């Protein structure tokens, strides 16, 4: 197909009005009743869910001291970790919700998404680093100080499952970021 | 209540006027992981949500194209890789089912068009969509956020790429 044919085919292309009007009317009804959400809003809501989980972690920190009988400093560290993650995720949720990049010029919007994703990776590094300190402290106190082998094995199992998943996700994020940056560089060159 | 009614009326007026623009963009970006109906709905939702923030500092058509293209690109990032195309059927399009021979030929041309364009990256797809819609380069530049000179160079490269892909 040559380019002239491509253009003629495109000019010829149309979707039945009835189909589009039905879909548009249906979506308008849902929107006016607040029953339709964009995927951006769903993404923001997913961060709220994670933030609430962080609050649950913080709420459980007294049990680290009272039930698991680990030192107070470990329980406090655990609580601070949960609170910090909750604050970060609430903040990020708000940022995603208020982001209005869709009406920006396409390349500018792509640059804005790259910035947000970079921020997301940085926050993930912070949480991973903090989480590693907390888990390390728990493992040390649980096994080395108290000889609690089942707890240690449970933590190791969690690490064995979580770390590969985390590595796969991390590599996906990095690959996606590189892809977007290459597209921007290509568009502006 | 009056504001909601007026907003819905404004939304329906805009959607009616630009539904073909939105539909065409969505078809070109559609794929097995990003079906047309999902993209179309997502674009309309984003148009609705962006209505209050549209201040008229660009043309409405510019704003609609930006919203549609950015939505489709974002959807792809979140829901799967690009490449592949949603399979078109006769009843998806304005083709008279009684004239099946002509209809099938047209359908094949549309599928070939969609197949070729699905092989481009997201920004190339956006540029070629706007070129196919015969937008002037300065308007394409405003929609894309690049200079008209850059638009011309990029479109020239994409045309070469499409010509090569069509031969393969």
In short:
Chain A is an all-alpha fold and 189 residues long.
Give the arrangement of secondary structure elements.
The complex is a heterodimer of chains A (189) and B (168).
Chain A: H1 3-12, H2 17-32, H3 39-66, H4 72-98, H5 106-145, H6 149-188
Helix pairs in contact in A: 3-4, 4-5, 5-6
Chain B: H1 2-29, H2 36-50, H3 60-79, H4 100-118, H5 122-132, H6 137-144, H7 148-167
Helix pairs in contact in B: 1-2, 1-3, 1-5, 2-3, 3-6, 5-7, 6-7
Protein architecture, described:
In chain A, 85% of the residues lie in helices and 0% in strands. Chain A has helices at 3-12, 17-32, 39-66, 72-98, 106-145, 149-188. The two termini of chain A are 29 Å apart. Chain B folds into two domains: 1-83, Rna Polymerase Sigma Factor, Chain: A; 119-168, Arc Repressor Mutant, subunit A, CATH 1.10.10. Chain B is 72% helix and 0% strand. Chain B has helices spanning 2-29, 36-50, 60-79, 100-118, 122-132, 137-144, 148-167. The longest helix of chain B is centred in the N-terminal third of the chain and has 28 residues, at 2-29. Chain B starts with a helix and ends with a helix. The mean pLDDT of chain B is 83. Classes of the chains: A mainly alpha (189), B mainly alpha (168). At the A-B interface, helix 1, helix 2, helix 3, helix 5 and helix 6 of A face helix 1, helix 2, helix 3, helix 4 and helix 5 of B.
């Amino acid at each position: 197909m040559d380019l002239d044919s491509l253009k003629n085919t495109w000019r010829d292309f149309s979707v039945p009005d009835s189909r589009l009007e039905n879909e548009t009317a249906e979506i308008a009804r849902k929107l006016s009743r607040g029953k339709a959400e964009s995927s951006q809003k769903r993404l923001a809501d997913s961060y709220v869910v994670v933030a609430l989980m962080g609050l649950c972690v913080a709420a459980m920190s007294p049990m680290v001291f009272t039930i698991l009988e680990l030192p107070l400093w470990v329980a406090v560290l655990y609580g601070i970790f949960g609170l910090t993650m909750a604050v970060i995720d609430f903040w990020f949720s708000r940022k995603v919700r208020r982001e209005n990049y869709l009406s920006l010029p396409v390349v500018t919007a792509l640059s804005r998404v790259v910035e947000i994703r970079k921020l997301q990776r940085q926050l993930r590094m912070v949480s991973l680093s903090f989480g590693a300190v907390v888990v390390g402290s728990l493992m040390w106190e649980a096994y080395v100080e108290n000889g609690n082998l089942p707890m240690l094995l449970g933590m190791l199992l969690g690490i064995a499952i979580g770390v590969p998943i985390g590595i796969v996700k991390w590599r996906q994020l990095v690959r996606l970021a590189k892809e977007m940056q290459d597209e921007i560089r290509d568009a502006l060159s | 209540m009056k504001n909601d009614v007026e907003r819905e009326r404004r939304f329906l007026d805009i959607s009616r006027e630009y539904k073909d623009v939105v539909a065409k963009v969505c078809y070109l970006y559609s794929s097995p992981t990003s079906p047309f109906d999902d993209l179309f709905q997502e674009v309309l939702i984003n148009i609705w949500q962006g209505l209050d923030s549209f201040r008229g500092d660009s043309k409405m058509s510019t704003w609609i194209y930006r919203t549609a293209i950015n939505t489709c690109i974002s959807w792809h990032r979140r829901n799967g890789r690009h490449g592949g195309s949603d399979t078109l059927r006769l009843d998806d399009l304005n083709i008279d089912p009684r004239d099946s021979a002509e209809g099938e030929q047209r359908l094949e041309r549309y599928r070939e068009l969609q197949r070729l364009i699905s092989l481009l990256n997201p920004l190339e797809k956006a540029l070629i969509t706007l070129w196919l819609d015969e937008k002037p380069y300065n308007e394409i530049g405003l929609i894309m956020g690049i200079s008209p000179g850059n638009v011309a160079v990029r479109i020239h490269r994409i045309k070469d790429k499409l010509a090569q892909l069509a031969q393969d």
